[in-house]
Amino acid sequence: MTFLSYLINGISLGSVYAIIALGYTMVYGIAKMLNFAHGDVIMVGAYVSFYATSLYGLPTWASVLVAAIVCTVLGVTIERLAYKPLRTAPSLAVLITAIGVSYFLQNAAQLAFGSSPIVFPSAVKFEGIRLFDGQLVISGITIVTVLACIVIMIALTLFINKTKMGRAMRAVSEDKGAAQLMGVNVNSTISMTFAIGSALAAIAGVLLCSAYPTLQPTTGSMPGIKAFTAAVFGGIGSIPGAMIGGLLLGVIQILGSAYISTQLSDAVVFAVLIVVLLVKPTGLMGKKMNEKV
Amino acid sequence: MAMLEVTDLGISFGGLRAVDALNMSIEKGGLVGLIGPNGAGKTTVFNMLTGVYRPTDGGIRLDGQNLVGVNPQKISHMGVARTFQNIRLFSGMSVLDNVKVGFDYSVRYPLVDSFLHIGSYRKREREMDERAIDILKEFDLDRQYDYKASNLPYGKQRKLEIARALATNPKLLLLDEPAAGMNPQETGELMETIQHVRKKYGVTILLIEHDMKLVSGICEYIYVLNFGRELAKGKPADVLNNPEVITAYLGE
Fold it and tell me: What's A2-113+122-279's CATH class?
């Protein structure tokens, strides 16, 4: 029974990783860049939601909506100002810029919100359900997180596969130049990708801080790196891959800390990543790229 | 005035003069060939016409509108579409979706409808499906609409590129070696298809081709490039019997 409750906690944490990883993987798939500032957008989302509730007394759903809107604008602005001028620059320059943006966001948050951690009130008031005479408790936040993850996954898959904007995204992802020559607006397609990724980050921020209720300017960085790992684990660029990678990573982390060592749980996560990449360098669902010689 | 006016067009890459002092004039509805030995600069001309390269000098006008310095996406909206010498389909996408990407600019519906799959979403997507199937029928690809583009045989991939270009509703269609790698029978079919499509969609065509049977069979006028310069121009029968052209192709 304890195993089952660990497993459920793992799935819950993994769902948050998966939502964040979707942002990483979409931006990588379409703009071909690693947006290391993505984790910090989570933190901004959580702060916005916190203050929307505590200062303006907005209901939870409205505060999440406000956080999502603010993060969408933030994500698109970051892309416009920091990444767009580097569209033709070497990928290393873009990578370093992304790390710079990440530090910028952390420091700006320190300035704006202070560096001391605040206690984040759970966005989910629902108590959860007790099974087997109270031996197994599934908390409200776990249920909401897993449901949110499933809904987001389905909505995103439909959006990418069935709509005009999704089609443009796939085209840009395959061949930016050819897409442009067919009249696709590459810049607005990339902006759209950042908008969706950042809105998801805001949702992930609220869910994460509801489950682990401390919030400080560095809150986003570790989950960001974990989600990046999840995206690579599942095969970066692949949406189902991000989902599976995120879930597995969460489960491995929780089981690792329960049965191996709490201190080593992060090490276990990254050890598993290394093994997966040794056996399957493109990740679990990654496509094999045939290099033309 | 001609539909496409190219005047003294030239481009240099560092010290290399890839195209120099090229003049072309193509009337609406024309079917014109651009030929020349490998490395003559033919694809470079296409890249300048579509905004991929910015010419170092000279002018390009489509129906009087300047194309120099305009980005590829805008040029596509203005009515120039192309295919590629080395096929550049969206290979992981379905045949149908490849064509539908071509409608991206002309067919619009609000983003909210995309998320909720309501309202104009269904109507517009259905219209796009119908129009895409109509175009695919011309190329005998309609029954394979749900194939992944990369799973089509080579000749069909070339046809799909033309279909995708037509979906952008071009005035001017640039075909870069449409018959490359096709056998004589496929080339014959392609010639008929090009003629048919030109009439049905009222599109002006400029094509690069090495297959002289195709060029002399369908082109009304030919420009010959050699080392980036115009070597000859005129009716196919005259140009292809021009000793200079024969020398350029076959050597001394």
Answer: mainly alpha
Nearest CB to B72: which of A158, A181, A287? A181
Q: What is the pLDDT of residues A47-81, one digit of tens each?
A: 999 998 888 888 888 889 999 999 999 999 999 99
Helix axes A2-31, A186-211, angle to 10 degrees: 160
The per-residue pLDDT for range A226-270, each reduced to its tens digit, is: 999 899 888 888 888 999 999 999 999 999 888 888 888 888 888
Q: How far apart are CA A222 and CA A266, in angstroms?
A: 10
Query: Quick one: closest CA in A to B89, which residue?
Result: A178
The nearest alpha carbon in chain B to A182 belongs to B102
Rounded to two decimals, the ipTM of the complex is 0.88
Q: How far apart are CA A272 and CA A253, in angstroms?
A: 10
pTM, to two decimals: 0.87
Min Cα separation A80/chain B (Å): 18
CA distance B78 to chain A (A): 9
The whole-angstrom separation of Cα A234 and Cα A249 is 10
pLDDT of residue B252: 60
B52 touches chain A (CB under 8 A): yes
The answer to whether the CB of A159 falls within 8 A of the CB of B115 is: yes
Q: Domain locations in chain B?
A: 1-79+170-252, 89-169
CATH number of B1-79+170-252: 3.40.50.300
